[in-house]
């Protein structure tokens, strides 16, 4: 599969990392004194600088897995593009490269999962995961996409897949393309407000 994911601009990267910063503030983490954090990185990004103060760390091989697996989770259809077309691989790389404890934990879990995918792919098909054909990718994903149906030996892989799927979905549905896919309108200017539709008024007992 020859997929060329779109890279995020620095502005987009900053916007998407705001969710992480907001979550840290809710948890009450301090800007300084958190073990392992550079003193130049706090919980309040400088939006005027439009710069993420850490390097992306995922390898090229890992990014291929991120791209292929992300597109298996959210493929292109008649409503929206694939995850890679809106910069989700770059978003995940930004996320797991962050030095905050939650992101470091996600990084370790995802990297273990990427290694497992390649090992399992080699075992079944004698190829790395990113080199598999779509039916082969689907076969592996089907085995780890549900805790209810997965075999006991796939327990860690199931946890990895759930974490990765949540990151892909969280990133995708924070994009304009994702909003459109679920019918979210947001703050769209209107010449006039016609009021709630009749079915909504009926639902709340006002019509």
Describe this structure in words.
- There is one protein chain.
- This protein is mainly alpha-helical and 207 residues long.
- It has one domain (10-203).
- Helix content is 52%, strand content 0%.
- The chain has helices at 10-26, 60-73, 88-97, 101-125, 134-144, 155-172, 176-182, 198-203.
- The longest helix has 25 residues, at 101-125.
- The radius of gyration is 20 Å and the shape is globular.
State the helix count.
8
Low-confidence stretches: 20-37
Rg result: 20 Å
Number of domains: 1
Give the SSE order as H and E letters.
HHHHHHHH
Most strands sheet: none
- Which of globular, elongated, flat, extended, rod-shaped describes the shape? globular
Helix content: 40-55%
Query: Which structural class is indicated by helix and strand composition?
Result: mainly alpha
End-to-end distance: 54 Å
Give the tally of β-strands: 0
Mean of all residue-level pLDDT scores: 84
Our estimate of the beta-strand percent is under 5%
